[in-house]
Amino acid sequence: MVSATHPDTGAEIQATGNVPGSITTPIYLSKGASQKMQKNMTRQQRHLSEVSKRFPDAWKGLEKLFFGRGKELPEWPMWCWVPIAAGVAVAAEGGLSIPDAEMSGSVIVGIGAWRLTQGVYRIDPTVRRALMSTPLTGEIPVDLFYRLPEWCLYIEIPDHPSMTDLHGIYVFLEWDTQSRGAELRLLLDRDKSLDPAVMHLIPGGTLDACLSAATDRAVANALMSGLEVGFNSEEFRDFWEPIISLVLYLCSDEPAIRSLADIDRRPRHPAPAKTKKGMRLFPPDNQTIWDVGASIGEEIRSASTQDPKDGSHESPKVHIRRAHWHTYWVGKEGTVGRRRILKWIHPVLVGGRLCG
């Protein structure tokens, strides 16, 4: 366990040895609910239930802040539901000490944002493994994260290569009210806890630059506190890169996402509803399971069973064109609409059996 200083608030934080740079937070897994109730709830429902019980007025208060954006309150980007500072205020009003409120703010805002759409993204296992092993090379712009399909979403990750007790992650974007900077925020759903983690997004920067800066920031915070650094840059990237690849795919151009209940439905931000008491955001009755990459997974598995022989002739030299990320410019050069998009090129078999 390594202690350090929170990069934004100055509050003391702790980073576990196998979650480089993460922030510990109180465990939000219900202990008071009956075993029968626990069995009938998904992990995400348990998290939502626990936060709702601990802070019963949180959703009403945060919704009011959301609709005060640009009116009673300063404006912030629409890709952020509400800043974490609002969650810190809710936690403090709920009786937590300032240090504990600092730690719990991201959990309250992350779970609150997820509550509004309740999307659970179930990526095809073959695609998920291929994505997590795809190198994050090249000039990948971090602006792509602003295309996150929902304010907060949950990605199932039962096979993270370096974190065996991870079930999945909540992903959302934060607008820091002090630095006026953007952050990619995670809540790591582990066996017994939700562990927040953060990566600052450099304006106009690349993913590689942000990862390097995040590593340097985590190391510097530990050294400033006179503490031993419990991880190196390679371990930091081993943790972050598989997760980032999954998130990037959901932000890429035309990701293969479909609802198991309605194939024509697509993920989106909730639409405000006008009521007698003002504008409201109403959460859905149930969570939505989004099936991701099913057709691509079938294609990869089908290719892996192809016969490497072609009649009586020797087949070409078998090789695999590894999965990789590719950015494209779209739109006429010099116009406002010109932008970069990202596509994931999945593993391609050339001349025989696809492996890996």
The count of strands amounts to: 15
Spatially, the strands of the biggest sheet line up as 7-6-5-4-3-11-8
Regions with little confidence, pLDDT below 50 for 5+ residues: 1-34, 352-356
Oligomeric state as shown? single chain
* Mean pLDDT, all residues: 80
- Main sheet specs: 7 strands, mixed
Q: Share of helix among residues? A: 25-40%
> What sequence of helices (H) and strands (E) makes up the elements?
EEHHHHHEHEEEEHHEEEEHEEEE
Total count of domains: 1
Task: Fill in the keyword field for this structure.
seven-stranded mixed sheet, 9 helices, disordered N terminus, single chain, two-stranded antiparallel sheet, alpha+beta
Structure description:
The chain is of the alpha+beta class. The chain has one domain. Helix content is 31%, strand content 22%. The chain contains nine helices and 15 strands. It has helices at residues 35-39, 43-54, 58-67, 84-93, 98-115, 125-132, 207-224, 233-251, 294-304; strands spanning 2-5, 12-15, 119-123, 152-156, 166-175, 182-190, 194-201, 257-259, 273-275, 278-280, 288-292, 319-321, 324-330, 339-345, 348-350. The strands form five sheets. The protein has a seven-stranded mixed β-sheet with strand order 7-6-5-4-3-11-8, with helices on both faces. A two-stranded antiparallel ribbon has the order 1-2. Strands 9-10 form a two-stranded antiparallel ribbon. Helix 3 (58-67) packs antiparallel against helix 4 (84-93), helix 4 packs across helix 5 and helix 7 (207-224) packs across helix 8 (233-251). The longest helix has 19 residues, at 233-251. 36% of the residues are buried. The model is unreliable at 1-34 and 352-356 (pLDDT under 50).
